[in-house]
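Design job #97: recover the sequence.
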């Protein structure tokens, strides 16, 4: 079994891509398919972005030829956040009850990871993010209520939002994985605005709770050479380290952010003033 791959692109290459080429390189559209895993291997920091939606079966994390490993997490760690109904994650025989917007960290060296839903009528939907790891850290269930919620922004500028940090330097410990989510307040549509870049880490965004017939315009590219992608519910973005990553929706929504790279400091970013964007 071979995993999809996406290769790294330089800023100069990306500036010349048309809409179809941008989507083919940076947008993941096939996530949350019932009773199957969907994974993409990115050559930005060798992050793997994916999902599993176990509607009717208990699904075991498979291994892929790309990894040249005996099992998926032989040299990797994994973060999982549930955006669907109540579910369970079974890690080497230990069961974690994972409700909507709860997270699980699974450390390097774990041989068996299984995913299941409590009810087939309201299945769990797990966003998955895996990165290389050189050290083992303990598995951990992180409840949404314990995820350091912080509200920033303002309704006056349509960017009031609450940030939940799950796996980070001061939260659940990991080797190099940083992960959490953001929920926009009613009437607010802008995420990560003012925007930023962080050359020391790549990042992925996964958009969820985008209402039917609504979309998010996700902005990417260098601050003075921006592009956009139109994103629907349960789709994800691969964001290069040199790129901004922000969005404006036609409604409020939520998104998971997941990073890996040089450090675990959530606040390590280089801000870009709104007036300097092009």
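Job complete. Output follows.
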């Amino acid at each position: 079994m071979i995993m999809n791959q996406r290769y790294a692109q330089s800023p100069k290459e990306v500036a010349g891509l048309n809409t179809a080429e941008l989507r083919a390189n940076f947008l993941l559209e096939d996530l949350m398919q019932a009773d199957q895993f969907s994974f993409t291997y990115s050559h930005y920091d060798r992050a793997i972005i994916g999902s599993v939606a176990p509607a009717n079966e208990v699904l075991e994390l498979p291994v892929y030829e790309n990894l040249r490993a005996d099992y998926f997490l032989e040299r990797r760690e994994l973060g999982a956040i549930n955006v669907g109904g109540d579910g369970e994650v079974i890690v080497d025989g230990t069961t974690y009850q994972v409700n909507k917007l709860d997270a699980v960290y699974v450390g390097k060296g774990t041989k068996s990871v299984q995913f299941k839903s409590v009810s087939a009528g309201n299945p769990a939907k797990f966003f998955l993010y895996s990165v290389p790891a050189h050290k083992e850290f303990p598995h951990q269930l992180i409840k949404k209520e314990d995820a350091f919620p912080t509200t920033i922004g303002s309704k006056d500028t349509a960017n009031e939002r609450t940030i939940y940090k799950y796996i980070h330097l001061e939260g659940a410990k990991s080797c190099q994985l940083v992960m959490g989510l953001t929920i926009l307040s009613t009437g607010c549509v802008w995420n990560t605005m003012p925007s930023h870049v962080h050359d020391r880490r790549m990042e992925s965004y996964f958009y969820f709770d985008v209402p039917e017939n609504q979309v998010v315009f996700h902005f990417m590219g260098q601050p003075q050479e921006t592009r956009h992608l139109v994103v629907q519910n349960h789709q994800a973005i691969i964001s290069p380290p040199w790129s901004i990553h922000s969005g404006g929706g036609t409604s409020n929504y939520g998104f998971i952010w997941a990073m890996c790279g040089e450090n675990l400091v959530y606040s390590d970013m280089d801000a870009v003033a709104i007036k300097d964007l092009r």
